[in-house]
Design goal:
The protein has one domain: Divalent-metal-dependent TIM barrel enzymes (TIM Barrel). 45% of the residues lie in helices and 19% in strands. The strands form 3 sheets. Strands 1-12-9-8-6-4-3-2 form an 8-stranded parallel β-sheet. A two-stranded antiparallel sheet has the order 5-7. Helix 3 crosses helix 4 and helix 5 packs parallel to helix 7. It is globular.
Amino acid sequence: MIRFGPAGIPLGCEGGTLKGVEYCKKIGLGAMEVEFVRGVKMGRETALAVGKKAKELGIALSCHCPYWINCCAKEPQKLDASVRNLMETARAAQALGASPIVFHPGFYMGRSGAQCRPLVVQTLQRVLGKMQEEGIKGVALGAELTGKHSAYGNLEEIMGLAQEFGLERCQPVVDYGHYHARIGRLRGKKDFEKILDAMERELGGGVGKNFHCHFSEISYSDAGELSHLELGHDEPPFAPLAEAFAQLGWGGRVICETPMLEVDALKLQKIWLKAAKP
């Protein structure tokens, strides 16, 4: 089973996150990502109420951490701030019953991925240690595949973090638009199968049982992503990915990050249902 949902409160919803959850259920979607990209500004009582409603309605929640996280920053104060922002999101996610908390790992800043990796690992170790101290359970970190050549987070790097900490604590979040813009153009089913096969090979068959990913069409330059696009440009196409998911038996969630949010999430869901039909 694959659930589809928007990255944030649906466009057609009048209200906040709680109303957004109800709206997703009303229109037939099964997931929603709570966006904390500009800071965690949701109180615990609100988060508990949203989580209760989502559980009642069968809406699977995840969260997106603030954009300014950099787990391989050169300045200690910026690493401390990254830990703080990840922890604030983890606390909110626990109250929401949400997982994973998706984050952009950081920036190379003139260094190689190999040079950055120890800092990223150390920073995430601090976060996971604090989560354990506070009794935060059932919340996984979600290292997102990033869309610019300057950012830490290609496929191998996010798989490496999952290998380091285990899938229950840190899972790779493949953003197919980012992959398309940064690493290789995705056109046919074989292009998508290459990604899924690599994940199964490196992380085991369990990675496809409850994966979490983002999908958007995208404009790009030689440096990588420029902006997210609504569906219809085939940059990249979703149908071949849906076919690959169905053929390999993958399940989990697809979060739509196009400007059309729930409108395109419903289109993605329709394409998936057609591909999965016996």
